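As a warm-up, study this chain.
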Amino acid sequence: MNGLGTDGMKRQMRIWTKAGRAALSGGMLAIACLSALPAQADKSGAMPVEDLNVYGNYLSGLHAERLSNFPQSAAFLDAALAERPDNIMLRVRAFQANMGAGDMDRALTLAKEIYDSKTGVPPLVVTYLALDAIKREDWDGALGYLKEAQDGHNDVLIQLSKIWAEAGAGKQDAALKAIEPLRKSFAGIAALMEGMVRQHFGDLKGAETAYMSQVEDPLKAPGLLVRALIRVRLAEGRTDEARELLSQYLVRVPNQVEMEADMAQLMKKQALPPLAATPADAIAEGVYQIAIPYSRSLWENGMIFLRLSTWLNPSLDKANILMGGLLEDRQLFDQAIAAYGNVGEGSPYAWQSKVLIASDLYDLKKPKEAISTLEKLSLERPDQIGALRSLGQIYHSEQRYPEMSETYDRLIKRLKDDRPEYWLYYYLRGMAEERQKNWDPAEKDFLKALELQPDQPEVLNYLGYSWVDMGRNLDRAQAMLKKAVEQRYTGYVVDSLGWAYYRLGKYDDAVRELERAVSLEPTEPVINDHLGDAYWKVGRKREARYQWERASIFESDEIDGDELRKKIENGLTD
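Now compare it with the structure written out below.
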């Protein structure tokens, strides 16, 4: 049976593509840009610099920073600095770029040079030196640096450093006092730090109270606080309570890789490794937590915080995972692969990192390698869906619909229950079936997706449009499309509703909706074409030809150019 028309299907594919990668991955300070760059510059790695003068290297370094490419920026700025070693401003920029690139040894060298210059030393430089002292357990040195850094500044990195410099020096009261400035803006992190400090000094009851200060029910607490609470109960000898809490939490919030690793460890022995074995590890955890909100709004700041967290604790693999995701957001796939490659083989994140590397290989135009890797990974973990999810997305992008439907079929068989978020997999399998003109199984999958997520706008739009296109379930289809527009007010979704009215002969309603759609997506040829058809039907023939001519201006493989020219010359025929 015929399914969605060609232009309709491609519109649906386009709607999905715009949100697809974010939905599947489930999922964080620009400066001046140059109008002209050296011919060899691109976004993917450190650049050759020997042919540029100091100004060319400097400006190219700024441009690379503008592109969020810290390794490239660091290479250019270091080259400029080699020619102007007395320029403190240039040294500061090179320090920040090297930190963002993850070359923490080079950043430390520059920080020491900036500090020794005694000229305009930024607080971040002094704080970085304090963190280095904390790593070396030089508590007096760290506190000395922090006293300088805090003069007129009191940012979150200084606060975290001061807490653990005081704790490392054995000053519990001073460490607890240093937590107080965090409570206003970062209450959850303050609770975590207080619990860790109290646990560091052997106050297990106080640690448990601190961890639970933000919630009454531990099953509703963030996973990290629950993991900390479990360790307190184990230290108190309450092993059965710890296991029960962990088990209940995993039932309520499944697929938590660190907690699953804790459970596997507890099944073997009655102990778990500490969340933070050293003050540096504790700061790394706090910095990682701060990086999460920063990465959503200030990409560069988030990246620097993540680099700091993995420098302080190289085994903090969740920071490498988040870092790889940020690099993917900037299309820096080589650098993302490097971040994922830093995940240890024995880490709870090891398998996930391999799946993410394979997905980035596809983005680097290596589809065969990506597909073969994901197939292998899917067989290694027959109870996991991550590799199949990424594999299905690749087949989707490649328009290999038989393989796409088969992959999502395998994925769906691995689902242990009907969770609302699983709507996506039925929707994608239905899309693949529809593209193969297998409408009955496609329709069944779309209905299942709506059963799991009744108001999901993509599914409402896809199924409603399909039914209209086939002349089926017209009243229900119109209701679906109206609901989709209410939730997802985009040109493509509004166009679906307008085109539904057109197919039903409701031409005035079609004009109204299609005019709205064109206002939202003025350069979309299919929508302009649809509005032209609707105008013709209500007798606005001059405007119809204008819309068809607009549709012909924009390049598209979704419109038959010959048919469009016939409409411009002759109008519509019955």
